[in-house]
Design goal:
This protein is mainly alpha-helical and about 130 residues long. The chain has one domain. Helices cover about 85% and strands about 0% of the residues. It contains five helices and no strands. Helix 3 crosses helix 5.
Length: about 130
């Protein structure tokens, strides 16, 4: 039961925070950096699949270890590292294989993915600890 609560809390936190970032805070940045590479309209099925799968990874690699020992700060640290490696893999691969993928976008996205994952892992852990 605690794992399910951790997953749901992590998923909700991750999606909610990321949608504010993508839809409000950095909307114009992503649009200006990606230009014609950006899908219009957004292709929602792969996006939803990403959120569902990524939250599983956050729980496995950050939340569960933190629930076992270490608590919220450990979850944030492990989430930061998991997010860094996952987003770096994505962005650096894009830089390697996509013509015109911008460096500035990659660096911001890696930083954001790291911080976002840390926040979601900490929130998921804090909620799961209550149950």
């Amino acid at each position: 039961m605690q794992a399910a609560i951790a997953y749901i809390a992590t998923l909700i936190a991750f999606v909610a925070i990321d949608l504010v970032w993508l839809g409000v805070v950095a909307k114009d940045f992503y649009r200006s950096e990606l230009g014609a590479l950006m899908a219009d309209p957004i292709n929602w099925p792969p996006g939803v699949a990403f959120y569902l799968v990524f939250a599983v990874g956050v729980v496995i690699f950050a939340v569960q270890p933190a629930l076992t020992s270490g608590g919220v700060l450990r979850a944030a640290w492990l989430g930061l590292m998991f997010g860094f490696f996952a987003y770096a893999t994505y962005d650096l691969t894009n830089l390697a294989v996509m013509k015109g993928f911008p460096w500035r976008m990659a660096l911001v996205d890696i930083a954001w993915g790291s911080v976002l994952t840390a926040m979601a892992a900490a929130i998921g852990t804090a909620v799961a600890q209550r149950f």
